[in-house]
Amino acid sequence: MHRKRSQVAVIDQDGQVLANRNVPNGVEPILKVIGGLPPGTPAASGAAYGTSWLVELLEDYGFAPHLVHPSRCKVIASARLKNDKAGAAILGQLLRADLLPEA
């Protein structure tokens, strides 16, 4: 998540990437990517200043938000490919495997 845009990835239970898009921050763009998911679906985001709006959005729409401690997420820090698309997919895989270092 950045100030104006966020990378949103959707990973299914088998680990397949169903979507991985860079969207403007806001309710409508984010819900276009995740709005069809069932209530209670877990969602991960890096914990940073200004993420409270995203947590509120996820909770309001029935998602289960998890904030990730950025400096404890070694798999992203040590990845050879460092970009938002790869990072979002990695967070999704860690969430799926219940391996997130939560903030």
Structural account:
There is one protein chain. A two-stranded antiparallel sheet has the order 1-2. It has helices spanning 27-34, 52-60, 74-77, 84-96, and strands at 5-11, 17-24, 42-46, 64-68. The protein has a single domain (5-96), classed as YqgF/RNase H-like domain (Nucleotidyltransferase, domain 5), CATH 3.30.420. It has 4 helices and 4 strands, in the order ββαβαβαα. With 103 residues, the chain is α+β, with helices and mostly antiparallel strands. The two termini are 15 Å apart. 17% of the residues are buried. The longest helix is centred in the last third of the chain and has 13 residues, at 84-96. Helix content is 33%, strand content 24%.
| Average pLDDT metric | 89
Q: Give the strand order, joined by hyphens, for the main sheet.
A: 1-2
The main sheet comes to: 2 strands, antiparallel
Low-confidence blocks of residues: none
Number of DSSP E strands: 4
Which CATH class? Alpha Beta
What is the percent of helical residues? 25-40%
- Give the terminus-to-terminus CA distance: 15 Å
